[in-house]
Amino acid sequence: MTGRKSALALALASAVGLGGCGLAASAAGVHDAPAPTRTVAALPAAAAQRVATRVLTAAEAAETQSSQAPRAAVMTGSALTMSQAAANLGEAGGPQAGPVTRPNPPRVLAISRGTGWPRTMLVQDAAADGSVVLGLLRSTDARSPYRLAASATMHPGTSVAALDPLAQGSAIGSASGLTTTPDAVLAQLAASLAYPKPGAAPDVDTTDHFSSSVRANATATAKGLGALATFTQVHRVVPGQTVVVPLAGGGALVFGLLERVDTITLKPGGKTLTLSAQNQKLLKRPTLTKKAVLQTYETVVLTIPASGSTSVVAAREQLVAGKGE
Amino acid sequence: MSTLASRTALAALTVVGVAVLGIGLWLVAHLGTSGTATFSASPKGVAAVLVGPDVLNRVDAPVTVTARAAGGAAVFIGAAAPADAQAVIASSPHASVTGVDVTDWALTTSTAGTSTVGTSTPGTSTAGTSAPPALAQSDVWRSSASGRDRTSLVLSQASAPESLVVGSADGATSAVESVTLEWEHHAWFFQALVVTVVGLLLTLAGAAGLWRSRRPVDAEVRR
Questions:
Q1: How confident is the model at residue A7 (pLDDT cuts 50, 70, 90)?
Q2: CA A21 to CA A26: how far, in whole Å?
């Protein structure tokens, strides 16, 4: 009996003690930590703004350097390839006298949602010439900083439809309910830019500034070569470089990378062809006797609306490689 | 109730009252009139410290985190989503703050991995561990602070749940000397005051009862 009483007293004392602790914790305002939510942006807007400003400022400064190391620290993917190619061809700006300063900070338009990797940020920035540039910043893992992965200059008169609220984040990499897939529209655009035989692009409006310019340049080049050589131009979509940013009202903004290959083949019995200064630098020869193959990267940004035709809203091209004989 | 039982109960009441009064005074002394609870830890020989939401986000008051680096080295504090903070730490040697111990006003910690801090040879971690992260190079931080020798960061609870990582900005293996978490919650001072007053009342009630119950016995003894 005494043993039972002792056990009962111990149990009561424990219950009162534990209850007392719980009550004291509760009275002190101690509660369980809230559960994590995955339907928010990977970074708050203010932190994303700081990151975007830092990366774009550093990228602008790196553009003025001839070596690759500063570029590789702040750029990746096609942005790095194109920037380094521009530097190799002497197209990059000269060294700055002081640090790069930005009169207007970039504007963050979209941030990846959730905690997955890689993460992407869509930013809008103003170039030195006043044009508007769309950029993609990417971070591959928790220990790697964001780097500029792609950028393209917006065409005059174009715009980007509303994106998801920054706090909510965007499901970058996927978009549901599209009338055509991003891969399909990029393939159609690539086909439509072929010269001399363009393919059909039923879902893409190819009257934009970029497409018109590419076609006009191809025609002018072929005309300039005349009877001396033939000129062909093909585009292909570079796999693994497409990034899809869903729009708030349906549809998507699509970043894609096209590789353009220009082939100049001298006709039999033709004479030598004197190259332009830029091509001489790239091909490391002053003239052609047989053939030249020039590789150009084209970053294109397309808007796939909820309904209607897809159109190119921004583009950037850069001659990156070539060989001649 | 017998006189003996009554006296025993009153004595117990007095003891409980004294204990509650002591606890109340002790809480008032530590919390101060601002109601600031300060808990510290001095993890030995680790280059990074992880503080999870189960410690940071248990009360609604803002928390001030202060970190000191050994030898006046640079120290970095970053707040991130819990999954991101864990991903930055990865398998590098670190101490995790697992709770607070009010009796010592200390942070309780557990250590993971084998640390190499304090050695002058970087990159000599034991197999299975990774190098300390260069915290400033990561872009997961919602807010951060860094400084030489000592730095502080105030976190509101608006972004909870969050985790904190304290360590080196550039991945150096210098040790974190101490981490202090400080919550300021004015109500805690008044609650401690209430405990003190309750303890005082219990003590007075018990003591007065004992005093009153002793007089008849004394009178009986005198007769």
A1: very low
A2: 8
